[in-house]
Every structure is written in structure tokens, then in C-alpha cells.
Structure prediction request, 235 residues.
Amino acid sequence: MHMGRKLFFAASMALLLLAARTASAAPADEKETGRVLRRLDEAAKNFHSTTADFQFDSVETDPVPDRDIQKGTVYYERKGAAFQMGVHIREANGKPMPKIYTVSGGVFKLYEPLIDQVTTSTKVSKYESYLQMGFGAGGRDLEQKWEIKYLGPETLDGVKTEHLELTPKDPDVRKNLTKAEIWVDPERGVSLKQILYFGPTEYKVCVYFNIKVNQPLPVDAFTFKTTSKTHVISR
Prediction:
């Protein structure tokens, strides 16, 4: 899932300009990164929960170009060190395709009501903190897990955001997620947009809107109803 090429002349000029600015730009970038991270630390102190509608565009460019679009609502909650996430998918590629996946207490669960099946896994605990990226994670939380590069301010949907590039420090995580970009609102500690890069031909664009912070969550934000006939798979 990826992008295109630049003209040789334009690229050459950009490199020349970059070389001329590098010595003075690096300290300024580090200062701006620190400023954004400290603002996220302040936002994290007051962050408890988030509700947001989303559109996830999963793109693959090779060997067969493909695009998958999912829409729904996501819920995040933090209580001290405890973290929960619930993703409620309503449709895929314009068709009803209900799915719910949750992460709570280090356990991942995927419920697919159309086939009445639940898949569970306890192998996500190592990666749980990465899921908080851009949703309540403080600057110090990000610094522990990511190499961070400041890419500048940008306004999305009238909201002033800070654009960060994140590269996982853990080589095991980097095998699956090579890097991420987030456009974060440092006032609320939430992302309006994320791009997750899984390799040279695969990426995922996540756009969030109708964001509500610290509002009551629905009772089924992190749960779903099953029956005695529901097929359960553990991995």
C-alpha cells in the first residue's frame, strides 16, 4: 500500500535546500518536538475517554492493488494504567459488515456477528501501549516506545494539529509496523488522522471525526453479546 515519484530536478533542488538548512533546523525541530510532547503530557493528565467516528482506508499497492474501506465508531478509556479500546465497525466498502474488536486487560477479542464467531488472543499485551498512540498517550509515553520526528503544524477540519512521525523502538514491533504518522490535537490529546505503514506496499489511513473527550461511554463500548451457539476460537 504506497505512493509515487518526484521529478529529478525538483528532488535535486529539495536536497540542496535541505543540506543548506540541516545544521540550523535540527535543534529547532528537537525544540518543537519537546514542546508538543510536553503539551501532550498536560493533556494526558485530564484524559479519561474518547468517542470518535472513523474511516479506515487500507491500501495495498503490490502485487495486486487493493483498497478496503471500513467505517464505524471507536472508544478509548484510560483509568490509571488500565486501558481499554473498542472498535465497532458498521460497514465495509459501502456494505453492512458489522464487527467488533476490543482490547482490555491485555486480551484481544474479535466478534463477527454475521458468522457468530469470537476470536480471542492474549498475545497483544506487549503491544497494548502502542494502541494508545494519539489517544490519551502523554509525551513521555510516546518517548518510551517511539523515535519521534516533528513534521510541523497543520490544520485539519479547522483544528490546529501537530504532525509527528513515529518509528517503533522495539524491533519486533517494527517488523509489522515500520512507522506511523499522526496529526494530533495537543489540547485534547487526540488524533484526527493517522497513517500506519506496514511495509513498502501496504499502509492504512485512519481519519477520526465527531470526537468527544471525557463524555460518558455506552455500556457496550468494550463488550458484545454472544449466545451458547457462538463459536469461540483462542489463538
Remarks:
- The radius of gyration is 19 Å.
- The longest helix spans residues 8-45.
- Confidence is low (pLDDT under 50) at residues 1-26.
- Helices lie at 8-45, 139-145, 171-174.
